Amino acid sequence: MNATPTETDRDARRQIGALPYRRMRDGTYTILLITSRESRRWVIPKGWPMKGRKPFEAAAREAYEEAGLLGSIGKRPLGFYLYEKRLKSRDSVLCQVKVYPLEVRKQLKTWPEKDEREDRWFSPAEAADAVAEPGLAAIIRAACKRDAEVLR
């Protein structure tokens, strides 16, 4: 998950993301994934750092804009993963996403990107299987094996 950075990793563009989760009454967790706008693959809410906001605050903002989520965001990242982002120019760029845990309190009825994406709650195992990026799958599996203390 947090391997020693290679030359390529150091050249990666930095992004921030939120791993939205809920703790169920029986003590299990569910994870919310959304579809990307272009490829429609399952992803977490993520984006570029925002001027004037700490990384975890920007991650919480992305979760609101992309999935209508409100909740408590962790200040420490769970880890990071790498992926190739396709740009509008059809080029691609390597991105490193720092992932912050977001304990979801509420999902709003409307939000900025509601009509551009689908969203769905998954069990942790289903969420890890649904995402294309092995590093993100590893973060989901590791986070949900730990207790709630780590997710906060």
Describe the structure.
The radius of gyration is 15 Å and the shape is globular. Strand 6 and strand 7 form a beta hairpin. The model is unreliable at 1-7 and 147-152 (pLDDT under 50). The chain has one domain: Nucleoside Triphosphate Pyrophosphohydrolase, CATH 3.90.79. Strands 1, 2, 3, 4, 5, 6, 7 and 8 form an eight-stranded mixed β-sheet that branches. The two termini are 19 Å apart. The chain is an alpha+beta fold and 152 residues long. The chain has helices spanning 7-11, 55-67, 124-130, 134-145, 148-151; strands at 13-23, 29-35, 42-43, 46-47, 69-73, 79-86, 92-107, 119-122.
Summed up, what is this model?
One of its GO terms (molecular function) is pyrophosphatase activity. With 152 residues, the protein is an alpha+beta fold.
